[in-house]
Design brief:
single chain, 5 strands, 34% strand, GNAT family N-acetyltransferase, acyltransferase activity, transferase
């Protein structure tokens, strides 16, 4: 699943293709060496199908693999991390 997620630093976002040219994205900024997750978007017509959770899992897995600390300002990412304690060690703030 993580392999579906790619970091696009030029646009400050993680991207997950979901077919027919559509993508789900998680915007971020880097602040004091930490990745601040700001906003998550899934195309409206594809919401509630689990794509946001797949994206969140892939983002957290990629950040864990890279040894990054995370601040989850995005309500969706914060909520996802709260429901998945395996990512708690990544969180700051």
């Amino acid at each position: 699943m993580e392999s579906d997620i790619r970091d696009n630093p030029a646009m400050s976002r993680f991207e997950m293709p979901i077919g027919d040219g559509a993508i789900a994205v998680a915007y971020y900024k880097v602040e004091d060496g930490r990745v601040v997750l700001l906003h998550t978007e899934v195309p409206q017509e594809l919401s509630a199908l689990g794509y946001g959770s797949r994206l969140a899992q892939g983002v957290f897995e990629a950040l864990r693999r890279d040894g990054k600390r995370v601040i989850a300002k995005c309500p969706f990412m914060s909520s996802y991390a709260a429901r998945h304690p395996e990512y708690g060690a990544l969180l700051d703030g």
